[in-house]
Design brief:
TIM Barrel; alpha/beta; 16 strands; 2 domains; seven-stranded mixed beta sheet; 17 helices; Urease, subunit C, domain 1; Metal_Hydrolase; 23% strand
Amino acid sequence: MSKKTLTAVRGNILHFLSDPALHGDEAYQYVEDGILLCENGHIKKLGSAHELLGEIPEEVEIEHYPGHLIVPGFIDTHVHYPQIGMIAAYGEQLLEWLETYTFPTERRFSDQVYAEQVAEVFLNELVSCGTTTALVFGTVHPQSVDAFFNKAEARNLRMICGKVLMDRNCPDYLRDSAESGYRESRDLINRWHGKDRLQYAITPRFAPTSSPEQLGRAGDLLRENPGVYMHTHLSENKNEIAWVQELYPDSKHYLDVYDRYNLLGNRSVFAHGVHLCDDACQRLADTQSAIAHCPSSNLFLGSGLFPLQKLRDLGVKMGFGTDVGAGTSFSMLQTMSDAYKIQQLQGSTLPAMQAFYRATLGSAEALDLQSTIGNFEYGKEADFVVLNPRASTLLNFRVDRARNLEEQLFVLAMLGDDRTVSATYIMGEAQFKREDHCTKAGCTHTHC
């Protein structure tokens, strides 16, 4: 029998048990000066340092982050790893942006060596921003998915990815067919889905670039491979929506196109959903399909303002997505900031507790992974992030004036970024630590 591996991390600990919009203070647990004890990469116990210090064997070194906030790892429910090379590309809305920047950038991913180089940079960025799980677009090339999974597996990350399906309205150099897309996706599923912490997503780019035949074959893949994901785009841009109606004139609305090919379900994730009719919203709720809210991208491409309150009231599953490269930051804290501002523009709001819930347990629920990740319940995988509320001079000054936990979280969401992440742990082991941080007992560094 293998020897048990124990790790212990000490700091102020916050995690969510449910949606604070529904259950208020009962939805979360906060332990000031707590210890998170992990065994073989899973959560063993959470409690106050006063209670647990006597239980931890002397040989287990406790990594101490005084004054820091320990939360479950952030979960990005929609992001494009091949687009990191075109992040912050100027001046277009969605359809023109795809033609001008996205398609030429993705062409290079036929080269697996190049794809692996980009995947390495991408994963470095995710982890340094505290993101431990992501639902990721590859390109139309199967080797882009092999490259991504090779790098993710080497880091023991829980990641979901898929080959793009795209058989029309795209450049010839990115076009597959209904049958080749089916075969290549099937082979990738057999190779990667369920291997270590990796899972596969059937990935039609969006309805305009897939023929009815291809969407039908995507539905076949979903039916034939229980447990895989379906990941695509939905109702992001008004011109896009009009185009979908032209291409699928018999559909009731954009979501109905996917529905007709049996692509909705509890592991179906639709990015954006900015412009949704009432029937589409209700159908998402009824099928337990999820929306990935990508506020930074929606603002950058001028796509519109996301109706978070409406979807939440209907019980639609929702997570946050950065949507890099249309999104301009890998930081889930900056994503929270943009999400808050979008609600303000609609006369609504997004309290900090709800924002942190959406970035952790809420996104885990959107991905149907709430039994595996998303909070610190016993037995879950120990992916978590350590946040420094004093990571910058301004944060240090402002946090001193925060009156309570909610206000401190709000300040972190509004003013935080990648510098706020002191450490990121994967299965209980530190995979990233900011160089200026020290975990030695008694450390008094100003910004530690």
